[in-house]
Amino acid sequence: MAATAFSASKFTQSFSLNSTRSVDRPPLFPASHPLKTTPSSFLGSTRKLSLSSPSSSTSRHRRRPCRSPAVVAVSEVVKEKKSKSNVSLSNPLITKEEGLELYEDMVLGRSFEDMCAQMYYRGKMFGFVHLYNGQEAVSTGFIKFLKQEDCVVSTYRDHVHALSKGVPARAVMSELFGKTTGCCRGQGGSMHMFSKEHNLLGGFAFIGEGIPVATGAAFTSKYRREVLKEADCDHVTLAFFGDGTCNNGQFFECLNMAALWKLPIVFVVENNLWAIGMSHLRATSDPQIWKKGPAFGMPGVHVDGMDVLKVREVAKEAIGRARRGEGPTLVECETYRFRGHSLADPDELRDPAEKARYASRDPISALKKYMFENNLASEAELKAIDKKIDELVEDAVEFADESPLPARSQLLENVFADPRGFGIGPDGRYRCEDPKFTEGTAQV
Amino acid sequence: MSAILRKIIAPGGIPAWGIRVIASRTYSSSAGGKEMTVRDALNSALDEEMSADPSVLLMGEEVGEYQGAYKVSKGLLDKYGPKRVIDTPITEAGFTGMAVGAAYHGLRPVVEFMTFNFSMQAIDHIINSAAKSNYMSSGQISVPIVFRGPNGAAAGVGAQHSQCYAAWYASCPGLKVLAPYNSEDARGLLKAAIRDPDPVVFLENELLYGESFPISAEALDSSFCLPIGKAKIEREGKDVTIVAFSKMVGYALKAAEILAKEGVSAEVINLRSIRPLDRATINTSVRKTNRLVTVEEGFPQHGVGAEICASIVEESFEYLDAPVERITGADVPMPYAANLERMAVPQVDDIVRAAKRTCYRSVPVAVNA
Fold first, then answer.
1. Which ipTM value was assigned to this complex?
2. pTM of the predicted structure, to 2 decimals
């Protein structure tokens, strides 16, 4: 316990928002709690762990007693944070414009995904469709801090990351419809959103697969600055992944390399407590993922992922740290998905009480409330945004629906960088052309 | 038709994790000409490409301070520094994926696997992240990366270190798969691979690294580069076509010499590129010789030879005068015992016998090992 606290505090020092942090506090927590009236506290898995008597929602998880001491540390911090949260309400954390931007992005994510569910059930999209409802504060809180040149690497739950990064709703919806106007012309699909223009490097359908790719993008930024002498290359990469991934070896491999080489990356864990039907607590020996940061020599931060303002504050610090060349950060955002793992998931294992508890902490409602309380927006202004987004999503659906299917000729395109590639030719026979880029200098 | 053999061809040796120096064997006479080992050919190709393009970098286990597990990267750390010659932790999935991400984002990484057996730890990134991304992104994200390292059977290292992955990678769209035989191949193909905008799997052979081959002035020029997707006719002949790649090209050439003494004129094709496969050259040759023998170290089922046979049956069936013959590794994990190991990989005699069978010459029955 003491060792844990010590190592955490050690890394805190290079990463503190304020100087008054006590020794046993884990790295970086927002100094204030903007959503003070939120009815249920931000505890999630940690509360369940700290309770020794099994409640209805936790009775299915058996826990070894040796875990509880580690949990107390977080509980203390949470308490501490909660006590501090009453302090600074008079000074809002965001401007009106920022608030409206966050609100719009979150509403876009929510409405888009709700529309996806409708379209999926109507047979307009197919395969696995994983919706992001409930987690919007993470995507919005982080990605809205990025520049166009910064990279985002996502998972199979990638629609909203794409939208936050600026990929037009039309292009994302069309991709889901399998239309040629999609951001990957219908060749990617729900789990494989790419946009070179927006530096969205995928959409990875396997657990852990995106983390090394993101690490490589961060490596490239550093390489461009230090080897190619592009002094102004301060691009940052965000790697998004879930709690289930944090038990995969690639996560650890990349924490190690990113810290070792001080890469400009932020590892953003969207801990929604469930890997399909596997509870985080049932799958992970120490469920506090943020603690793995200090173990690798980087700050680890635990933040309420249902509170966009807190996420934003952590994001600002972590992205700034990466941009200044100070290395990677691991951020655990505790969040919750309001729908099943995918639209094909019957979602029978999650306790209704647990779902209800998180539903009451809906990040969009919370932001709305905060903005009202701080006179940052009127009901009418937010309604106008809702309406605008509704229209935008409707338009995306219409656009996607009217767009053409990919032409037959597209089947064989883009296997290689030369669009003609190799493969089966238009005559149906195997083609072994020698496109210009592979021409050698020797006669064969 | 797995290889069952009796004669020792490969020099025996202590299985060692490190450089294996093999007595130099030269397959063509080149009085006074320049020679170069395959190791030096690869090293010089890397050196020249890194020198020509600062976005090229080398990454892998022991490539830097150790100078490469097989010394292929010797001297490169001194020349290009630790930012471009990167010693990675032993984390194939991690560093391979990371290199793929760097390639997505504009660099041209060369990833060295200490052996291709270890690429199994990273095959997800080779297939799912590298090979498929250009297609999935509809051409937005190209992946200029080279995965290279020794492939195929070494000697005495057992099943997990002795496997040919040519057929595995060659079955995946989005990858280009190259297998050099001699020093000219090694230089020309590696330079082409590094310049190529797509992911290339570059299959070297541990037992060839130390071999010297004659090399022309043209091949030594820093602009030299071989086309991807073109096979080379190493030796012309008229009676039977022998198709091979990597180390087996040397065996095929030896077999052709023996066959020549017995009056059989064999044409030897060095594939160089497993994918794309130069079907045109193979079919043209078989239409001339009317007979085909394929040679590979890999497993028989769904192998490179199987694909070649399918191509011949599809395109040149009516030209065949004899059933095709496939020489492959035995359909078993590689045994450790030296005598069993010899029986599990193709030998020159197997090729000679198979070629004779296609020509309906009498073939002595193989003696049990």
1. 0.81
2. 0.81
